[in-house]
Amino acid sequence: MLGLTNECIQNDRLHHNQDAVLKLLSSAQDHIVIISRHLDSTVYNNDAFSQAASQLVRRAKHTSIKILVHNTEPMVKNGHRALELSHRLPSKIEIRTICNDYSQFNQSFLVADSIGYIHNLKSDLYAAEVNFNHVEKSKELMEKFNAIWELSTQDTAVRNLCI
Length: 163
Known about the structure:
163 residues, 7 helices, Endonuclease, Chain A
């Protein structure tokens, strides 16, 4: 449970990552940040993720989801549900492309309410560390995310689809 369970869990399977992402997203009350190479469709492009994300951002005025990806092309090409959701709720969900300064950054993570996280040291693998109550590590990941976010911009392909 977010904010309660301070146990470091090692995941190495797709379904474990899917479960952890959904549990973090479902128990968040304020914000979610995600950084990923291309927002892995097997984890993030499904009804359960879309519904949980929609519920979070509609919960209160201040809730938000920020997503950073290296490449939006697969998302646009395949009609990613997160992209569709960002078009319906642009003030709540924003997707940006990672700037060139971080082109070699190959980690992926999701941080919920700056409290819990799932962290893959190698974005293309499902080996991940999950913790639902580790403020220090979550803060470290948030600082990395915010540094990259500030230098990144919204991809024109994503923005053009909003018309």
